[in-house]
TrEMBL record:
Protein known as: BTB domain-containing protein
UniProt keyword annotations, A-Z: Coiled coil
Domain of life: Eukaryota
UniProt cross-references to Pfam families, sorted A to Z: BTB
Positions in coiled-coil regions: 6-40
Native species: Marmota monax
Domain BTB: 60-91
Length: 132
């Protein structure tokens, strides 16, 4: 009888541990989403958060050669770009696909498509002007 009781309690304890681990993971995910939303929603109040500073640094990399690991040829000019930004902003360009690429040549596409592709990788509010 006592062995059955111990067995039941051990099973119950194991279930409680599993539930605890699930809740800890969910809490970590929720905190991550909350931080991201705070950085997006109110830049003034969250300007010191890691995500907000990271987004600002990435936005400041626009057309900067420093840390650039990729050139994009568009309309006769070369734009300094960053593989991690392309990978983060687009499903079509992953780090694995870009690992051996040093230059993306978009000059064969219509000018309107080039600008749209590049604009979609930049931060909102920054547009690329490409003249033919």
């Amino acid at each position: 009888m006592a062995e059955e009781e111990v067995s039941k309690l051990e099973k119950h304890l194991m279930l409680l541990r599993q539930e605890y681990v699930k809740l800890q993971k969910k809490l970590a995910e929720t905190e991550k989403r909350c931080t991201l939303l705070a950085a997006q929603a109110n830049k003034e109040n969250s300007s010191e958060s890691f995500i907000s500073r990271l987004l600002t640094i990435v936005a400041d990399l626009y057309e900067q050669e420093q840390y650039s690991d990729l050139k994009i040829k568009v309309g006769g000019r070369h734009i300094s770009a960053h593989k991690f930004v392309l990978a983060a902003r687009s499903d079509s360009w992953s780090l694995a696909n870009l690992s051996s690429t040093e230059e993306l040549d978009l000059s064969g596409e219509p000018l309107t498509h080039q600008g749209h592709k590049i604009d979609s990788t930049r931060t909102p509010g920054r547009k690329l002007c490409v003249s033919s």
